[in-house]
Amino acid sequence: MGLAKRKAIYVQYAQAVPLKYTIDKANCIYFIKKGKCGACKKICPTGAVDFDQKEEIVTLNVGSVILSPGFAPFDPTVFDAYQYAKLPNVVTAMEFERVLSASGPTMGHLVRASDQKEPKKIAWFQCVGSRDMNKCDNSYCSSVCCMYAIKEAVIAKEHAGKDLDCAVFFMDMRTHGKEFERFYTTAKDKHGIRFIRCRVHTINPVAGTDDLEIRYITETGELKTEIFDQIVLSVGLQIKPEIAELAKRLGIELTEGRFCKTETFEPVATSREGIFVCGVFQGPKDIPQAVIDASAAASAAGEILSEARNTLIKHKEAVTETNITGERPRIGVFVCRCGINIAGVVDVPKVAEYAKTLPYVEFTTDNLYSCSQDTQENMAQIIKKERLNRVVVAACTPKTHEPLFQETLTNAGLNKYLFEMANIRNQDSWVHKSNPELATEKAIDLVRMAVAKVALMEPLKEAELEVNQTAVVIGGGIAGMSAAKSLAKQGYETHIIEKGKCLGGQALNIFRTPKGEDIAEKLSGLVDEITKDQKIHVHLDSAITSVDGFVGNFKSTISSNGKNDVLEHGIAIIATGASAFKPSEYNYGKDPRIMTSLELDKKFMEKDPSLKKIDSAVFIQCVGSREPDRLYCSRVCCTHSIDNAIELKKINPDMNVYVLYRDIRTYGEREYLYKKARGMGIIFIRYSVDNKPEVKPEGEKIMVGVTDHILGRRLSLEADIVTLATAVIPNRDEKLANFFKVPVNDDGFFIERHAKLGPSEFATDGVFLCGLAHYPKPIDESIAQGMAAASRAVTLLARKKIHTSGTIAETMPAVCSSCGVCVSICPYSAPSFIEETARFFPGKAQINPVLCKGCGLCVASCRSGAIRLKGFDNDQIFAQIYELSKAV
Amino acid sequence: MSDWEPKIASFLCNWCSYGAADLAGVGRMEYPPNIRVIRIPCAGRMSPKFFLAALTQGADGVWVSG
Q1: Do B45 and A857 make contact, defined as CB atoms within 8 angstroms?
Q2: What ipTM is given for this predicted complex?
Q3: How far apart (Å, rounded) are the C-alpha atoms in residues A250 and A232?
Q4: Domains of chain A and any CATH numbers
Q5: Is B59 on the interface with A (CB under 8 A)?
Q6: Cβ of B26 and A103 within 8 Å?
Q7: Which of B33, B38, B58 faces A439 most closely, judged by CB atoms?
C-alpha cells in the first residue's frame, strides 16, 4: 500500500497463500536493464527463480463457474475537500488497518505517517465513497464500514492506551451483524469512544504543524472546531471496472451499484445458468456473510454437478504399516534450517550434532526446507533405509506442519503417531533473534525433550467410522427447506422435522421482498418442490424427543402425533427459526390500529380495504431490539418498514407516512429503498432510546408524540395506524441444544463454530446451523445460509468414512474405582459406565473413542490414575519434564 | 546485580496459548529465552504432579496457560 518500502522480490503479506515470493517486474533490475543483475537466480539455493515464466492460456472444461472477484476499496482522492492525496495524516481505513497490524510497516506500533509521532486524537469519517451521489456514484451502503471503524478505534486504544481520543463521525450507525450492537455499546460505554452524528465537509491542515482541523455541527446544533492528529477515512467497497467488464463478457446482469444481479430466492445464482456468485461481488458484505455465500455457491454448483461427483478423483496408494512391536527405538532427528528463518539465528549444525549424542538416536541431519516436496521424499527414503521407527522434526510448529510430516511417516510405512516436533522457529529463532546463543541452547533443549518423548510414543489406531448418508433438517422454514432441497439435489435422503402443521415458517407471514418479489408465490413453488422430491421426507407436527450417537451415526427419536419413530442419520441441520416479538409498550394489544410489521403485512396480503382509507401512518422502529435486555439489532426491520411505508404511499400518495427510527440500517443496496422513500415524501424522524415516542389512541385517531431531532421539539402526529417494527426473537430450544451438545448465547441464538469463518456449522462435528436460529436475517440470506449448511454437511457426507484422532483417552478398568468423576467432568460426554450386566468390568468407566476429543480433563481428574491419554501420556510428559533438568 | 536467570517450564494448551506463542513468532515479538514449552492438549490435562516434577527438576517457575 506504499506505507513501507520493500524490495523488488517480495511476499505480498505475511498471511499470503501461497506464502511465496514474487518478482516485481516493474522494479527489478533484470527486467528494466534487460538481463543485467540476476543475482537472485545465482544465489537461490533451490533454483526457484525463473525469469522466463510467461503467462499461459489454459483451457479448462467445467460444468459450473463461481465468481468471487472481490472488491476494491474506494479511492478517496476525488474527495478534494478531504485532501487525502495531499495530507499524509489523512489515511484510508485499509492503510490504518496495516498500521495496527503486528506484521505491518511499524510492527503494530501506532504512529502517524508524517512525523512518526504517536497520535493523541484520531477521527474516523464514515460513508466515504458510500451512500453518496455527489462525489462518487455509489449510492449504496457498503455494509461493513461502521463495524470496522469501531473495531479500529477499539484496537487503536488497545495499542496506544486509554488516553487516546477516538471519535467516529457517522450518519447512521449500522451495527446489524451478530454481536455487533454489543460491541458498539461497549466501544461507547467502556472504551469511551466518541460517536458524533455528522458528515464533516472539509479537512484543513493546521499551519506549521501536521495536525488537521475540522468543523462540525453537534446534535444540539452547535458549531464546533476540533483538531485531530490523524483522520481515517472509512472508505466503502466497490466493484472494479475490469470486473464489470468481465461480467459483460460473461453476459451476466449487474445492479445499478455494479454488483452482480441476483434474486432473493436464488441468492447466489447469476442471470446466466451455471454461473454462481459469492462475496462482495454479490453485494457489499462482511466476512461471515461472504463465507456463507461461498458455501452456498459451492452447494449450488454441487447441485447441478452431483452426477459427476468423484469422477475426477485420484486415489492415493496405501502403504502397509510396518509392525514395530518389541523393537528398540531407532530415532531419526531432522533439524530444519527453514532457509535463514531458523539457521539465521540458531546454530543448526550444532543442534543436529548434539542430537546424535542422545539415547536411541540413530540418524540426524539438517534440511534447508524440511517441508519441501523433495525433502519429504528424501525423508521417507531415509526412514526406510535407516529402519527408523521414531522421528523428530525440529522446525516450525506442529500447529501447521505436523500433518505434513505425519503423512511422510505414513508414506514410509510408519504409524503417524511415532512422531514429535520441536518448535525451534515460531517459539525460538523468530522470538530470540538478538540472542542467537541462547536460542541455540533452547533449540538443543527442545530437541532433547522431543527425543525423550518420542522414544516413549507408540503406534496409535484411528477408529474408522461409516457416515450414515441420511440427513435430518430440524425446522421447515425457508432456511430449513433450502438446506433440504440442496441436500436432496446432491443425492442425499433428507428428513425435515417441522413442529408446525405446514412448511414455510415465518415466510408465510411476509408480504413481499424488498426487491418486489411476491413471497407467497415463490414460497408455494418451493414447498411444492420439496413435497414432490422423492428424496425429501417431511414430518409435520413433529419434534425430536431424544438424540443418541455422534457424527456420522446419530439415532434420533421423532415424535409425531403421539407416534415415536427412530431415525438413523449422519448429520443434522438446525433451522429452528425465530418469531416476532409481541411488545407490551406503545399500547400494543389495546387497539387494533396499533400493530406489528407482520400484522400490517397480513393486511397487504389480504388486500384489506381499510388500508385505502388511511390518511396518516406511523412506523416505530427498534421495538424490543437494541435495548439493554435485548442488545442486538434485528437486521430486517428497517428495510421491511421502509418497504411497507412505500407500499402505503403507493396505495395513497397523499398519505402522511412517518418512520420513527434510531438509526436507519438499510445496508447494502437496500439503501436505494431508503432513498426512494425520502424521494416519495416519507418523513423520517429520529428518536433516542431514552426519549421514546408515546402512542395514545384518542378518539378517531392515534396520537404519536415524538421529539424531533432537528427542531428539538416535541411533535404530535395524528395517525390512523401505527406499525411497530418488533424484534426477531429466536425460538430458544435448550432441549435441542442439549441433544446435540451445541451452545446457545444469552439472546437465545445458537452459537456457531466460528463467528467469522464457521457461521453455518457448530463446533460439534456433524451438526450445522442456518436461518433465524443463527441470527435475524432477510430471506435471501436465510436461503444462502440454508444452502451453506447443506454444503458444509455434504463435505462430511461425501467422505462416506471418517477417521477419529488417535490421541484419545483410554481407561484401565482394572484400576478404575467407578467414582464417576470422568463421566461428570467430560465436556463431550465420552466416558460412561460399563453396563452392570456386562461380563467384564461392570460399572467401571469406559471411553467412547469417537466422542473423545483428547483434552485430557478426565486423565488429570482421575483419582485412581485409571485413565491414560494416548499421545500425551504421563510417562511421555514426565520424560519431557525430566529433560528440563539438563537445561541451562 | 547477579546474572542469575530463572528457568521456566511452561505448559501451553495446544488450542490457545501454544498457538498464541506461535503467533508471537509470526509477529517477531522478542521475549527472553528462559522458557521451555511443553505442549499439552488442553490446560485440563495439567496434573499437580507435573508442577512438582518440573520444580524438582530445577525449574524456578512453572507457567500453565490455557
Answers
A1: yes
A2: 0.97
A3: 37
A4: 1-56 (no CATH), 73-238 (3.50.50.60), 241-305 (no CATH), 331-455 (3.40.50), 471-575+749-802 (3.50.50.60), 580-729 (3.50.50.60), 809-884 (3.30.70.20)
A5: yes
A6: yes
A7: B33
